[in-house]
Amino acid sequence: xxxxxxxxxxxxxxxxxxxxxxxxxxxxxxxxxxxxxxxxxxxxxxxxxxxxxxxxxxxxxxxxxxxxxxxxxxxxxxxxxxxxxxxxxxxxxxxxxxxxxxxxxxxxxxxxxxxxxxxxxxxxxxxxxxxxxxxxxxxxxxxxxxxxxxxx
Length: 152
Fold this sequence. Notes:
Blueprint: H1 3-15, H2 20-29, H3 51-54, H4 57-72, E1 79-84, H5 90-99, H6 104-109, E2 110-116, E3 128-129, E4 140-143
Helix pairs in contact: 4-5
């Protein structure tokens, strides 16, 4: 039996029947064993492909749209881009690279903040590990790619 199966059975033995949401929470996010907590599952050697993995063009187009939003908002001196469900950080890396090809004023004002329940495999600046959005007074845009796929 797999260690994650043992964990779920232990929870049932200790607490009796568990709701489906608790089963999925454990299956997806249990430390080091859950689907999303156990490593990178996305890409050529993973279980599925997603737009940011396909090509950096996805991030390039998104970065252009973010600059347009910044402009539309009156070019605030700090423009937050909050990525909820940042996963492995692929979109983060591609967007940060794409920002460098845009206007200097936009580059100087953008603050990219990735948020995810799990830590990325490699260090990412400003990364917040959280189940929610622990930010207030965001001036900018909240983005997400396939976040709903990870909800129990």
